Fold this protein.
Amino acid sequence: MVKLKIVVAMLGWMLLASPVLGASVCATDDLGEEICLDRPAKRIAALSPGATELAWAAGAGDQVVAVVAYSDYPPAARKVTSVGSHTRMDMERLLQLRPDLVIGWVTGNPTEQLATLKALDIPVFSIEPRSFEAVSQTIERLSTLAGTESEGFAEAERFRQGIAGLRAQFEKADPVPVFYQVWDEPLMTVNSQHLIGEMIQLCGGDNVFGHLGRLVPRISAEAVVAANPEAILAGGMGEENRHWLTRWQNFPSLTATARYNLFFIPPSLVQRPTPRMLEGTRLFCDKLEVARGRRP
């Protein structure tokens, strides 16, 4: 019965959708695929919290008709219809909303569900910004597809200039060995190729696990002790959840623990590739400055 409903919804969408003829707006996504629309998108589905924020940053918030769980910023996004989580969308509900553009997450959304949307000729713009510049470029490309270039390009430049200012401010800062904890169980961090790794480097941090091969490697508490970071920063599972840092208080020999350099960073400011990373980076840099000030 569920499969039948999905098929009916698919057929209904196909009847309502108009073919893309004489495309007037185009942009290349992070899979290298050129996405062209015959008119700027008016019904956008954002399939990750980060994609939702980027759509608003691009000036297209009023055009977003579908989001997924934890799409909580800006506050207006909480009022938009949710179609499940980023790992499993309710396809029937999504198709009922008749999106004319879907913003997909390259490594976060199920490939088979994105493939289904593409098979229905629903444009899917896949994103995964992995640098500060890529965040700005993603905002610009989304604004092109949404017909909101004025707002989107202005926001992209604001972010670009803000990051440039921080980079200049901290380019000669003394290095601080840093461990950034992205998850607790299992214990996980990021390497230097990750966007958060770029944030660490910009602030004058030396990522003690930056050399590892995986973008988000699993590690052990023993490895952290052996690396002996001067500062530990963690986000926790919520904006006010700081308990991930308490485990490191059980290791008084750690330099970060001995100097009270255990810092909480709201995860939404750091772990979503959006313009709010400017605020998160500024906070990150401030914490490392505190660590420098506590050196004997």
